[in-house]
Amino acid sequence: MVLSQRRTELDDLRRVHELTIQRFPHEYLDEGLGAIGLFLHNPPKNAGYRSTPANSITFASIGVDGIHFGALTDGDEFDPMSPVVLTIPMAFEAPNYIVGHILYDFLCLGCRHGYSNLGNLHLNFEATIEHYRNPPNDFFDERSPDILQTMTDELKLGPWSDVRRHFDELQSQFMPLLRAAPTS
What we know:
The structure is a single chain. The chain is an alpha+beta fold and 184 residues long. The protein has one domain. The chain is built from five helices and five strands, in the order αβββββαααα. The chain has helices at 10-23, 103-109, 125-133, 144-155, 163-174; strands at residues 39-45, 56-61, 68-72, 84-87, 96-100. The chain has a five-stranded antiparallel beta sheet with strand order 1-2-3-4-5. α1 packs antiparallel against α4. The mean pLDDT is 92.
């Protein structure tokens, strides 16, 4: 499989977040990309959970249970061209999954139905993979389809063509790069 090398910066994502806040306001539901499970962290930094890889910089969360997304790094800077890891702190057996070989690839994974459901990988792996392979047409927040379309158009995203195969390839290629957080 040929992996895209399209560079998408966090500033691009922040710009889309602000754009969606303006275009799709809501009185009490989550704003902007938060409505699709992307609560951006500013500044990005390691989330500090025991299950968070020591070599990751957290840039977003889904907004529940500490579930977060980070870019693998050899330093203290976020690199959009690094693999993206999902960390589910309450998944004690297997808390980490690679969900993109770069930021752009990760964004493509959720461009049709958002990112919140990735938090279910540890509970029902097959159903979660199927959710991203064949996303349902229903949304909790009626703004979500428009927010997703705006993000897709602005960042020129496209869904993964073979979700299961790509996901499996990411695990075998990049999971060995994760470094455990030091224990105290």
